[in-house]
C-alpha cells in the first residue's frame, strides 16, 4: 500500500503532432528581411522624436512611444555588447545539422544603430570573446528573407 507522503509516478502520454503554420512578419520585419534578401543591406528605423536607430526595426519607439520614421542602413560592422559561449549541442534549424560547440552568441550593436541584435558569433572560445570586440555580419550568398540570411558575425580588427 502507498503511504501518503510518497509521490506517485506520473503517466507520460506521448502525443505526436504534425503542425504546419505560417505567421505574418508584419510590415517592419517584412521590409527588414526583404531588403536584406534583395540588396544585402541591414536596415533600421529612426525614431522621429529621439533619433535613435532601432534594429531590428519596429513601428514604435519603446522609449518615446511614437511611430518610427525613416529607414536607414546600418552595419554590417558592429560591436559586441554582451556575449556567451554555448556548449549545448543542438540541431541548427537552418542547416539541419548539429552546430559545433562551443559557439558564441552575442548582442551586437551594428554601426549606426542604437539597439542590439542577438546573433551567432564566429568566435566561440570564451577566452577570446570580449565586450567591445568588433564584428561584421556574414550574409548567405543565396538569401531567403529571414534572420538566417546572416550566417554569423565574424571577428574583425
Ligand atoms: Zn524615440
Number of domains: 1
Element-by-element helix/strand order:
HEEEEEEEE
Number of helices: 1
Structural class: mainly beta
The termini sit apart by 70 Å
The average pLDDT is 90
Taken as a percent bin, the fraction of beta residues is: 25-35%
- Largest sheet, described in full? 5 strands, antiparallel
Helical fraction equals under 10%
Instruction: Identify low-pLDDT runs.
Output: none
Gyration radius (Cα, Å) is: 20 Å
Question: What overall form do the CA principal axes indicate?
Answer: globular
- Number of beta strands: 8
Bound molecules: zinc ion
Major β-sheet strand ordering: 6-5-4-7-8
Compose a concise summary of this entry.
The chain is mostly beta strands and 157 residues long. The chain has one domain. Helix content is 9%, strand content 32%.
Describe this structure in words.
The chain has one helix at 26-39; strands at residues 42-47, 53-54, 68-74, 77-86, 103-110, 117-121, 134-139, 150-155. It has one domain (26-155). The longest helix has 14 residues, at 26-39. The model has no long low-confidence stretch (mean pLDDT 90). The chain starts with 25 loop residues before the first helix and ends with a strand. 24% of the residues are buried. It has 157 residues and is mostly beta strands. Helix content is 9%, strand content 32%. Strands 6-5-4-7-8 form a 5-stranded antiparallel β-sheet, with no helix packed on it. It has a 3-stranded antiparallel β-sheet with strand order 2-1-3, with helices on one face. The chain is built from 1 helix and 8 strands.
Amino acid at each position: 500500500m502507498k503511504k501518503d507522503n510518497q509521490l506517485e509516478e506520473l503517466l507520460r502520454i506521448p502525443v505526436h503532432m504534425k503542425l504546419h503554420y505560417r505567421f505574418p512578419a508584419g510590415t517592419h520585419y517584412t521590409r527588414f528581411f526583404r531588403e536584406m534578401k534583395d540588396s544585402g543591406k541591414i536596415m533600421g528605423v529612426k525614431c522621429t522624436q529621439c533619433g535613435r536607430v532601432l534594429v531590428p526595426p519596429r513601428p514604435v519607439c519603446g522609449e518615446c512611444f511614437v511611430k518610427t520614421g525613416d529607414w536607414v542602413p546600418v552595419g554590417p560592422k558592429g560591436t559586441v555588447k554582451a556575449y556567451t559561449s554555448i556548449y549545448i549541442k543542438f540541431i541548427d534549424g537552418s542547416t539541419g545539422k548539429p552546430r559545433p560547440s562551443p559557439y558564441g552568441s552575442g548582442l551586437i550593436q551594428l554601426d549606426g544603430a542604437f539597439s542590439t541584435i542577438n546573433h551567432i558569433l564566429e568566435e566561440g572560445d570564451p577566452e577570446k570573446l570580449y565586450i567591445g570586440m568588433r564584428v561584421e555580419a556574414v550574409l548567405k550568398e543565396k538569401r531567403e528573407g529571414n534572420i538566417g540570411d546572416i550566417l554569423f558575425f565574424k571577428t574583425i580588427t
